[in-house]
Amino acid sequence: MDETVQRNIVVSAVNLRKGGTLTVLQDCLLYLSGRKDLHVTALVHKRELCGFPGIRYIEIPWSTKSWLKRLWCEYVTMHRISKTLPETDLWLSLHDTTPRVKARRQAVYCHTSFPFMKIRLQDFRMDAKIPLFALFTKYAYRTFSRRNSFMVVQSVWMREALSSLIGFDKERIIVAPPAFRPMEIPEGDSGAKQGMTTFIYPSTPDCHKNFETFLEAARILETRVGKGRFRVMITVKGNENRYAKWLRKRWGAVASVEFRGLLSMEELARAYADASCLVFPSRAETWGLPISEYLPTGKPMILADRSYAHETAAGAAQVAFSPVMDAEALASRMQDVLEERLEAFGPVEVQAPAPPYAPDWANLFDLLLS
Asked: I need a labelling partner for 243 at 20 to 30 A (CA). Which of 8, 154, 250, 343 fits?
């Protein structure tokens, strides 16, 4: 193809409005805004969320009102839009669903790990949206998946799981790890000034994050070693939702637990600096961001024995993996850190992903357009 001729690309991301998924959209469009060989149209919730130059924007704010409207947007509205655009060389959906559109080639970026999580009855009681979204996403991953030339995931474990779930060829699932802006973590004292060991688990109060196992482990450890020997810091206040209120009611009396609430980036960096150990027991993640943030400190981490944690922690120096729902085992690993017995902690080997692999947006679009 004549490289002087612009190719037409559509990026659809009408459901990405916050958090890590919005960052993916922003990074993607920032890269594409510098590509003079591409004519880019972006379907977004609001242009103000990602208004980079050189891109044509189509706003569809109503698609987030309900799942029914989301499906209508993906399978009806986008089809109508696609017929009004110049011939599209690549349509990249950045949010899990494969739209029914007119394009020479399609690809979908799959963020969500919920379809691979074991759902519990308690999840429906705490926040029905999460298990229902898990079921919805499992359906979304399958629907029209054969229209895609490629699917894109952030991790090797998810490539394997997605291929098994929907029968999509692994040779056409691209692993594209997320690019993180390094956090500037100041020098810390790891709790020495307070005379106690500090464990931190920074995350949102969502039921799949499994704060209950961490808090129960804190209670168990407190009964073993006494009060004032350690502290546990979580970024939950206790009034955010039903799950947070339940956590506060059940473990709020544990003296070693601090319900800190949401921290700013500066506060989180300071908390990482002062912490002795990161604990990350989440039941399901595509990529555990706090693991990546904390890893450069070189300090111990206790992580859920899940595929995502093994992959995200690659390159870390001192890691112990604990069964995800076993509070007694987690308390024992925490006691190891408290008493400076780190025989159960060790390095995590770095393994290069098998192709197709894209370490950055340039490599990813080279694969998608090849």
From this structure: 154
Instruction: Give the residue among 274, 119, 303 at the shortest CA–CA distance from 195.
Output: 274
Report the alpha-carbon distance of residue 348 to residue 315 in Å, rounded: 5
DSSP 3-state of 209: helix
Q: What is the dihedral of CA 17, 21, 27, 31, to 10 degrees?
A: -90
Closest CA to 353 of 363, 342, 339: 363
Q: Mind listing the pLDDT tens digit for each residue in 41-94?
A: 999 998 888 888 999 999 999 988 888 898 899 999 999 999 999 999 999 999
How does residue 192 score in pLDDT terms, banded at 50, 70 and 90? very low
Tokens of 339: 């008493």
Strands (E), 237-353: 257-259, 277-280, 301-304, 319-322
Instruction: Report pTM.
Output: 0.87
Beta-sheet strands, E only, within 95-222: 106-109, 150-153, 173-175, 197-201
Can you list the domains of the chain with their CATH numbers?
7-177+355-369 (3.40.50.2000), 197-338 (3.40.50.2000)
Residues 6+ away with beta carbon under 8 Å from 341: none
Average pLDDT (284-300) is 93
CB-neighbour burial class of residue 73 (10 A; exposed 0-12, middle 13-18, buried 19+)? buried
CA–CA dist 234, 99 (Å, integer): 39
Classify burial at 157, counting beta carbons within 10 Å of its beta carbon; exposed 0-12, middle 13-18, buried 19 or more: buried
